[in-house]
């Protein structure tokens, strides 16, 4: 088994002091709600909670990852040549436990992303509120670099989420809630600590997570070879 990566990548963020950027849009509010209705209809029967690589499975998600305003903000952050490393469509159904522990998007046991050449995006497909499980972030938390992580103890159908070791689940004293209307989006430093709660409302909460990379962003462990989805640039 390959040894875990040990690079910490401490230091400043390409997204500024807080390590995240809001005020972005991936679609209009009405069109985002229409996409949400399609997702709910498709996954209601099985109550699917996580859809991996949604941009390869759904036409709307393939368009979403290259939304002009969003992609321009990504290029401003990591450069002109951009590819999608992965996406996760996450559906929080009402009445079902779905807490996501504190974690960082740019590290796992297979790879680490260089924060100067990668960025995470979160797209609100439905409205995201404190009641239905919007993001909570710790501004500036990227500065300590990557922290030790492990799988949570859980029997959930969605699988066990990767969380920061030794960090209790639940809101943090320095945490900031990030509610969004459907159609809005944010960018996050791939080292930024963030989490979310379960959905306590009567409707589904849906978000799309995207990891964007520039050439040379990925440091793999062992034989892992990521499959990239190029959007701009050449030489991929």
UniProtKB/TrEMBL annotation:
UniProt KW keywords: Dioxygenase, Oxidoreductase
SUPFAM superfamilies: Clavaminate synthase-like
Gene Ontology molecular function, alphabetical: 2-oxoglutarate-dependent dioxygenase activity; iron ion binding
Pfam families hit by this protein: PhyH (PF05721)
PANTHER family: ECTOINE DIOXYGENASE, PHYTANOYL-COA DIOXYGENASE DOMAIN CONTAINING 1
Protein name as it appears in the record: Phytanoyl-CoA dioxygenase family protein
Species of origin: Streptomyces qinzhouensis
